[in-house]
Amino acid sequence: MSDTVIVGGGIIGLLTARYLAQAGKKVTLIDKSELGSGATWASAGIISPHATSGSTDIAGEPGLILRNLSFALWPQIAQSIQQETGIDIEFTLSGVLLVSFNKTESENIKTKAKKNDWGNTNWLSSDEVQEKEPELSKTIDGALLVEGGNVEVRNLGPALEISCRKLGVEIRSGELVSEVISDKNSIVGIRTEKDEIKSSNVIICAGTGSNQIKGIDLDIPIIPQKGQIISIDGRKIHLNHIILTENDPYFVPRSNGKIILGATREWAGEDKRLTVGGLSWLMNGGMEIIPNIKDSAINETWTGFRPVTTDYLPLIGKGNIDGLYFCSGHGPSGVGPAPASAKIILSLLTENPTEMDINPYNPMRF
Ligand SMILES: Cc1cc2nc3c(=O)[nH]c(=O)nc-3n(C[C@H](O)[C@H](O)[C@H](O)COP(=O)(O)OP(=O)(O)OC[C@H]3O[C@@H](n4cnc5c(N)ncnc54)[C@H](O)[C@@H]3O)c2cc1C
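Above: inputs. Below: predicted complex with flavin-adenine dinucleotide.
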């Protein structure tokens, strides 16, 4: 019998399983599909303590706190995963340029940085931006240089899975969890299509699937937000930083010569198909920021679904049944803030209270 069953093996479930196994817990991690193949696989992998888009801003200070704490944890996590598995997750701290196209946008970015006390930032004039990033459009008014970096999410999932296996986590993929089982308001296990697994703790880390599991009578307003995204051949476009704009698109240079051009934010159910409107918006917007990408080959296009809650904050903490926990609904920013989120669950399950205020993430707040 496991101490804990984790439902969902994206970045959140995997990191949570890893922390719990490191603390000596017996963990079973179940995913209906291949681990790391959900939103985590689709992500651009940006890790920054600061708001990476307009919608990240909505998460306010509690969102900022999670991103900040996580940002400090990432270098050590990346290093230890590499040592344990030999897989390079291509963690880089290139820095992020938040670029603006006019004076109003420039003022907005400066105000946002000041209001949120972003600390270690540097405003660059148009000429300074050109010096740092000659490929950027000459029409750019200026940019704020902030801390940040990224990971190759396609390597991150497999690396975390191997790390978890080495720590003794029992991993079951291709098995959908249909129901949590409780008795007198205490968790006794879960039911899958094939089996019943007994456990006194269940953690729901199922992303957009977190509100589709029977046996949980709780309002979980997680809505899938569709993101269409492109990988282009960036060998002729040299970028030194991640490039973000107020309302997208953004660019993420990868060490393997690819550049990620992302991403749409659409309320379009879970229809995976790419659309003419989505891709043309990305490509036209991208060419306004870096005109030379017009000659770049397209390597790959894909879609992913961000697990977005109605207040843009994740659900982290105890649910409405004893032994039921949630760590899901991280929306547009879930890779970056994953370590601190998983650590909150670790603190609750090891009865080692965290000093941070976790009320804003209370899964029962809706
Ligand atoms: C286009 C795009 C770009 C993004 N860019 C960034 C970025 O740059 N930086 C950033 O921080 N975030 C980014 N995100 C957001 C980020 O990807 C997500 O917030 C994060 O991956 C969520 O992780 P997760 O583990 O909760 O969900 P997921 O990775 O979706 O994992 C959930 C898992 O649960 C499994 N599951 C669901 N239901 C069940 C069930 N009933 N039984 C068993 N298993 C189940 C699924 O198969 C899945 O593997 C982006 C997202 C998208 C779509």
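The mean pLDDT is 95.
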